[in-house]
Amino acid sequence: MQTSPAHVPPYFYVTGTDTGVGKSLVSAALLHALRARGVRAVGMKPVASGCERTADGWRNEDALLLQAASDPRPVYGDINPYALRAPVAPELALRDDGVELSLAALVAAYARLAAQAERVVVEGVGGWMAPLSDTLDQLDLVRALRLPVVLVVGLRLGCINHARLTVRALQADGVQLAGWVANEVDPAMARIDDNVAILRDRLPAPCWGRLPHAATPDPALLARHLVLPD
């Protein structure tokens, strides 16, 4: 794994230790934190499964959260080029919808976003090893876009193991880990501070912050808990 930079990279990819660890919430909070620095920052959710039909077409809750946190606010189709109906693994959702994922289409949408802003936060699917389709892994997209990775660690029982395994996978793939964010998904977790201390000691990248658990989380408020490198 490449050495972590001592600054926030202009573009990065957010992955997680598993599904349900708060990647979208952290990504939106990161957008608010970047915007608080006076920079134009937009989000992207290249592939989203689990969408609802609206008057404007299929829409995904997580992608809408990123759109709302973006400034400027890009068109939805660039933020979420593939909006899939079923709330299942993208590979299965693509098959159900009869859609073939195009890496070129994702790269083109990303280029349009990057042309509008100084920072782009790209949110992945599930955990790092979850495939995008039957022919593409998340690694393929990260390589095509040349993005470093920010890891979201969901603080719950087993998070140390999941975080270290994810880091090993990133290392094996030759991906740069820019930083990681701890997200308190289980407020009843025993010895949560001790677990965070172990993670800080064992993960080979700086911690960008720890988001407290909230019944109705507000990304703009949670952004205050992020401490991004200069």
From TrEMBL:
It catalyses: (7R,8S)-7,8-diammoniononanoate + CO2 + ATP = (4R,5S)-dethiobiotin + ADP + phosphate + 3 H(+). It is found in: Cytoplasm. The keyword Magnesium applies. Its main location: cytoplasm. It comes from Lysobacter arseniciresistens ZS79. GO terms for biological process: biotin biosynthetic process. It is an enzyme of class 6 (ligase). Mg(2+) binds at residues 24, 62, 123. GO terms for molecular function: ATP binding; dethiobiotin synthase activity; magnesium ion binding; protein homodimerization activity. Pfam families: AAA_26 (PF13500). The keyword Nucleotide-binding applies. This is ATP-dependent dethiobiotin synthetase BioD. The active site is at residue 45. Keywords: ATP-binding, Biotin biosynthesis, Cytoplasm, Ligase, Magnesium, Metal-binding, Nucleotide-binding. Pathway: Cofactor biosynthesis; biotin biosynthesis; biotin from 7,8-diaminononanoate: step 1/2. Catalyzes a mechanistically unusual reaction, the ATP-dependent insertion of CO2 between the N7 and N8 nitrogen atoms of 7,8-diaminopelargonic acid (DAPA, also called 7,8-diammoniononanoate) to form a ureido ring. Belongs to the dethiobiotin synthetase family. Substrate binds at residue 49. Its cofactor is Mg(2+). GO terms for cellular component: cytosol. Homodimer. InterPro entries: DTB_synth_BioD, P-loop_NTPase. Signal peptide: none annotated.
